[in-house]
């Protein structure tokens, strides 16, 4: 397959993924905005506590199996069916274990509401585990359209159910049932399309076929979990449930650019780039192009989010979420860093270097966990946010060191040159927003937000043209070329 075909595949895959992801995100965003007005920060905080444990058990079910299925090109149908049957059994066992954890979780946080919430959340865990292998099979077969259709439909259905329940005073149960409905609808759609069968006998040799890859991926996920979720665990325990809700809302909002941009690209990258496992120069060029695109979009967006944090929080979620403003303003500084950093995992996987992905995860965990502990010790979630931004920045450097030096055997300077022009454009956006912040702080929120948005967009377009990067983007979209002008 030629480089041109590779870029066309990436371009088509990303386009399909973008349509699905953006539709899905719009639905989720509308749902979140509605529920934020119907439910209190305390109710969101209760669900956020249990969700930390749900994510952990979901990771135990995954065990790195999904990426391993995509990467392994020699798996037979019989082996895949055996792996699928194993994940079903594992999902059932861990869902029962999660339900048994309901009482200890409630006792640990001294909150009786957590008992019933955890019990119902075990169903969300079960339905999530069932989706893993079918979705990985469809992604491996590059059937991105079908995967995205399933995600959009299930999100729409779950959103309707969640809003109806919240409006009828079902409190935090509206959030939980919404997740269960989404996972169930997703499974019903993709199971048939993946043409999987449940086998009575699970062969050990079938699991060994993906063990070496999934082992490192699982260890990375395990380490990454604690480095990403320890803050939520400790805030809920040592500060307050409401503080956790404010923090979680700000943190979740800071991740939306990732979901809008990076998460559209990364599900497509590994299935396609894995075919070029031995041609690292091609993968490097693709990574540099992707990282430049993410920097061009992410850096100016970071500036806009920092200066518009107040307007964004109040317009989206209402006045009761004012406690999230300062936290979001701080975390927004790391938006562009997180966007590029999130894309590195798929590159490690594509080059079959899950060992280096694991090393990167260990280094990241040490920094993040240390930062979280210091932040919790201060007793203020704003200080925690500042320390985490510093940690993310250091992890950004070490991950790209491993990629450029160890994987591609190149120079780091080749990567950082990509950031110069995006930085200059960001400075251009910064200047007018700084002026608006000083002279328009007494104007209506929505009016100020519109002005900031329009001026940021205009300056961004001017900057893209002045630096020649508008032609760079057009070249990728229209011709599928991968060289950087």
UniProtKB/TrEMBL annotation:
Pfam families tied to this protein: Polysacc_synt_3
Transmembrane segments: 12-34, 46-70, 82-102, 114-133, 145-167, 173-191, 287-307, 327-349, 356-377, 383-403, 423-440, 446-468
Annotated localization: Cell membrane
Keywords: Cell membrane, Membrane, Transmembrane, Transmembrane helix
GO cellular component, one term: plasma membrane
Entry keyword Signal: no
Major localization listed first in the record, in broad terms: membrane
Database matches in InterPro entries: Poly_Biosynth_Transport
Membrane topology, from the record: Multi-pass membrane protein
Homology family: Belongs to the polysaccharide synthase family.
Protein name: Lipopolysaccharide biosynthesis protein
């Amino acid at each position: 397959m030629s480089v041109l075909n590779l870029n066309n595949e990436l371009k088509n895959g990303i386009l399909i993924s973008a349509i699905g992801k953006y539709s899905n995100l719009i639905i989720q965003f509308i749902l979140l905005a509605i529920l934020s007005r119907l439910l209190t920060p305390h109710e969101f905080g209760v669900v956020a506590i249990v969700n930390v444990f749900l994510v952990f058990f979901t990771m135990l079910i995954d065990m790195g199996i999904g990426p391993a299925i995509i990467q392994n090109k020699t798996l037979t149908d019989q082996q895949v069916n055996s792996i699928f049957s194993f994940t079903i059994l594992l999902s059932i066992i861990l869902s029962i274990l999660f339900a048994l954890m309901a009482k200890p979780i409630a006792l640990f946080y001294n909150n009786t509401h957590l008992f019933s919430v955890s019990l119902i959340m075990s169903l969300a865990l079960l339905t999530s585990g069932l989706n893993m292998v079918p979705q990985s099979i469809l992604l491996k077969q590059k059937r991105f359209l079908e995967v995205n259709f399933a995600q959009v439909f299930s999100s729409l259905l779950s959103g309707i159910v969640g809003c109806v329940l919240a409006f009828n005073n079902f409190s935090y149960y509206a959030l939980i049932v919404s997740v269960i409905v989404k996972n169930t609808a997703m499974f019903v759609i993709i199971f048939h399309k993946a043409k999987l069968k449940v086998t009575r006998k699970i062969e050990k040799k079938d699991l060994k076929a993906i063990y070496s890859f999934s082992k490192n991926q699982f260890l990375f996920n395990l380490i990454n979990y604690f480095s990403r979720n320890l803050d939520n665990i400790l805030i809920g325990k040592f500060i307050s449930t409401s503080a956790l809700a404010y923090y979680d809302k700000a943190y979740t909002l800071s991740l939306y650019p990732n979901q809008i941009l990076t998460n559209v690209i990364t599900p497509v990258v590994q299935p396609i780039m894995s075919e070029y496992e031995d041609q690292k120069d091609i993968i490097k060029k693709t990574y540099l192009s992707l990282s430049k695109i993410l920097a061009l979009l992410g850096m100016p967006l970071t500036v806009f989010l920092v200066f518009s944090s107040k307007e964004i929080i109040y317009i989206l979620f209402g006045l009761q979420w004012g406690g999230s403003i300062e936290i979001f303003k701080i975390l927004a500084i790391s938006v562009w860093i997180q966007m590029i950093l999130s894309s590195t995992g798929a590159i490690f996987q594509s080059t079959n270097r899950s060992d280096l992905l694991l090393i990167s995860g260990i280094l990241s965990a040490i920094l993040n966990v240390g930062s979280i502990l210091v932040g919790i010790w201060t007793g203020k979630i704003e200080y925690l946010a500042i320390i985490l931004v510093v940690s993310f920045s250091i992890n950004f450097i070490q991950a790209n060191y491993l990629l450029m030096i160890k994987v591609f055997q190149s120079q780091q300077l080749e990567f950082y040159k990509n950031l110069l022009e995006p930085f200059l454009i960001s400075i251009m956006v910064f200047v007018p927003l700084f002026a608006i912040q000083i002279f328009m702080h007494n104007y209506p929120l929505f009016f100020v937000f519109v002005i900031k948005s329009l001026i940021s967009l205009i300056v961004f377009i001017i900057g893209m043209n002045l630096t020649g990067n508008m032609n760079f983007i057009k070249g990728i979209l229209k011709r599928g070329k991968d060289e950087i002008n």
